[in-house]
């Protein structure tokens, strides 16, 4: 993971964001496009990053920050940071230790790890890490397979279910189509059998084998009644990921969910979908404290986590930087990403006058654009 400088001293990324450049050097070009790319012209990918770049915090002074805590509680799980690792498919694309290494690093860091339905490692093996696990679902055409996955997640000790609702079909990820992207033979959907497991390895006339695979498996008829069906069939807290409007947020609360993830899927679904950070305040205002509200998309630093908290989030999901760390150094690379994030967040909490994660919710934030600025919230 490290390089040696001319002075003979090891160098390493000094920020979470720097892992992106290091990872680009070691991930194959097609896998890099699959992980870092988005749909269409990638407007939403860029907008996610820009939303954080354009948001500023007004720090408070004389707050006695001699003791600062980053501890949090997310969806019933005690966490050392207000951060959970987002569900991401096929970690084996970037490192042979795959999801098992990521989970071990999550255990060390004390943050929840969300096992993707399309994980390359089965949940039972990931559970051997001892990490606090959540389990992500997509809505499958095979209702029996969905029930089986819920049972496996419960039996493996997962502490929450996360249903991703913004993929009735896969977004048009043009880089994957141009690359004719398909999984290598040693990477497959480990929670399934037969063609459902290896379908994303098959070359596709559409260009992307992953897109063809999900078209066959995912059910576009998902509706609010299905959320209620799932709610009735699990004892686990239920998280719905992919909400971007106050109307859908309210519908989710009426369906009995425990938490929302405000998300445009990292810019990988509808190109032009609004960044989660932008709509976060209105969704928080709509649901109040009836459910927990998380956000993802574009988070690259502890400062970004602070901004999300100030805008109303209870916590964040961290995605691509985790895979970048895994690519660069396996388990130790993910550990380094999470350690840097902790260091950045603790420093930024202190510099903004916050002794706890909860106090960040009272910070004033300002959005700046080329032509105007708008202040929001107050303490």
UniProtKB/TrEMBL annotation:
Active-site residues per Swiss-Prot or TrEMBL entry: 265
Record Gene3D superfamilies: Aldolase class I (3.20.20.70)
Swiss-Prot/TrEMBL cofactor(s): FMN
One GO molecular-function entry: FMN binding
Annotated FMN binding sites: 87-89, 136, 164, 241, 296-300, 319-320
InterPro entries hit by this protein: Aldolase_TIM, Alpha-hydoxy_acid_DH_FMN, FMN-dep_DH, FMN_HAD, FMN_hydac_DH_AS
Keywords: Flavoprotein, FMN, Oxidoreductase
CDD domains attached to this UniProt entry: alpha_hydroxyacid_oxid_FMN (cd02809)
Record carries keyword Repeat: no
Binding site for glyoxylate: 138, 173, 263, 265, 268
PANTHER family: 2-HYDROXYACID OXIDASE 1, S -2-HYDROXY-ACID OXIDASE-RELATED
Family per similarity comment: Belongs to the FMN-dependent alpha-hydroxy acid dehydrogenase family.
Record-given protein name: Alpha-hydroxy-acid oxidizing enzyme
Organism this protein belongs to: Streptomyces alanosinicus
